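Example record for the data management plan.
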Amino acid sequence: MSATLRIAGVGAWAPGAPDWQHLRKILRGESAPADDAPARPAGAVLPAAERRRAPDGVRLAADIAEQAAAMAGIDPATVPCVFASTHGEVAITDYVCETLARAPLELSPTKFHNSVLNAPAGYWTIATGCTAASSAVTAHHRSFAAGLLEAAVFACAEGTPVLFASSDVASTGPLAQMTRTSLAFGVALLLAPDGRKGAAIDLALADAVDEPFADSGLALPGVAGDNPANAHALALLQRLAAGTTSRLRLPLSTGLSLDMEITP
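Corresponding structural encoding:
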């Protein structure tokens, strides 16, 4: 399998960097994280009623997806989407587990509704009026590469732009001892198979790398934390920010990796 796509739009959110413009400057070493940046994603694309009940993971996914679609100049209502996450909405999962153990009848239907992995896709498609295909992907520490592959295959097979968003929020409760994700981070890419402007990305399947993934010199220490999926996304963003031709290989499964060449 090999494919060539254009990255027509990019969205990003990290502490001190609420959008791709801010994060790109940080990755280039041109600025530091902003002290006055919003502490939480706004989720402005969501209707007010939905925004009030939406958890941080949904707000984060909606923010980055909206940025990528706007940068590409494409109507999000027309674009298939793929949402990926390593752990999903950990705070709500912690609440659900604690409530079921303590008082099952007190479980909030709204919070249970928000606990499923495809909640961001649901909120996004309702908010934008998108009737195109949507999916949710998780592959633990390889979730970023797995979601990117899913989106790339769909874009090539159907000959259509596809919106891909990968995000995780900070862990809480006993689950934090296992997930060890301490900060929220998200990235969205609008992948297009046609002649749109944007960096070209050539993707191919390759044998799995023997050594653990490592990418030295990443900016924003602590954002990736112990979440390899975030580190993988940051590695790709760092190459996009640099604006030079580069290669990146990300672990995809026990036997495969995703090999990429990024060309400005």
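Summary line stored alongside the record: The longest helix spans residues 56-72.
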